[in-house]
Design goal:
GO terms for molecular function: hydrolase activity, acting on acid halide bonds, in C-halide compounds; phosphatase activity. Belongs to the HAD-like hydrolase superfamily. S-2-haloalkanoic acid dehalogenase family. The structure is a single chain. The mean pLDDT is 97. By secondary structure, the protein is of the alpha/beta class. 47% of the residues lie in helices and 13% in strands. The protein is globular, with a radius of gyration of 18 Å. The protein has a six-stranded parallel beta sheet with strand order 5-4-1-6-7-8, sandwiched between helices. It has a two-stranded antiparallel sheet with strand order 2-3. It starts with 7 loop residues before the first strand and ends with a helix. The chain has two domains: 144 residues, Rossmann fold, CATH 3.40.50; 79 residues, Orthogonal Bundle (DNA polymerase, domain 1), CATH 1.10.150.240. It is built from eleven helices and eight strands.
Length: 236
Amino acid sequence: MTKPTIKAVFFDFMGTCLDWHSSVVQALPSAIPRAEASKLALEWRQQYFRENSTRVSQNLNPEDIDITLARSLEVVLARFPAHSPHFDDQTKSHLIRAWHSQTAWPEVSNAIQSLRNQLGLEVFVHANGTTRLQLDLTSSSGLDFDMLFSSQLLGVYKPSREAYEKALELVQLQAEEVVLVAAHAYDLRGAKACGLRTVYVHRWTDDVDEDMEAVKTEFDAFLENMDDLPLAIQTL
């Protein structure tokens, strides 16, 4: 039986398409050694995911990502007490704003253009967060999509099944006609359970607790970057 034709690609955004780590580390107080700043940033990111997971498990509505990030930062600073004196209210606000300005990983723009221009696919952001955040990030990264689907807009966090089904309903496509591209295994697992095809893009900044050897065989394709994304999608 012939597989249905792929018509669209859903992209996770931060981590997958965007280098959040550089923006956050650069915004951290300069008094913190860069190696420590990197550790703090990575832990902040992980705590953000933990906060979202808790909200999903409690069936809570999505909240403004700035609020989640601010709460996560307080938790993380308690684990880095030596650096806490560097964080006054102004610094904390500056750090939250840093998440709204990120650059794309070097190969992402070309990959998206190839999907559109060579393969004729529609491309969408499908990510947790707010619409305002996604608007800011498309501006700072220069990336262009057909539509931005945020958890705020959809009313539910990934990896809840409803997050994928609602987006599919809005673009009027079947699950098997769409590929999710993400650097987060939990996200791809949710999409796979809904029938979407899945491409994992490995980013050193994300999924730091995952067993990459296991992840390599879990999805339809595993890539170290998006250079070969168009080819990978063509061969799914």
